[in-house]
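re: that chain from earlier
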Amino acid sequence: MIPEDIRFRLLRLLEAEPNLSQRQIAAELGLSLGRANYLLRALIEKGQVKAGNFRVSRNKLAYAYLLTPSGLEEKARLASGFLKRKLAEHAALQAEIQALQQEMAKAAERDAEMDGR
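^ sequence. v structure.
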């Protein structure tokens, strides 16, 4: 099973740049080449990505990874979940920052009181 965040990032990357090599995909996503290959094969088997070989290309290993209609639907579904998770993380970080700022303000007040005595 492919983690949703990685699957979303991969589908998003392939939609934006279908001509990337597996090595470039791996580097872009911070994955090993083997992991990138595994993920691409899984998406191809699910029918979400189609790999087309450039016959005219001098580099016969060059592929274009195109999202199928199913892949586009999956990307849209995953985008919604990804956005919800990121917004929740953002809210949690904001709350933590606010709590730390309050702690620092209280500590500064205590220090000022001690200096004034």
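The mean pLDDT is 90.
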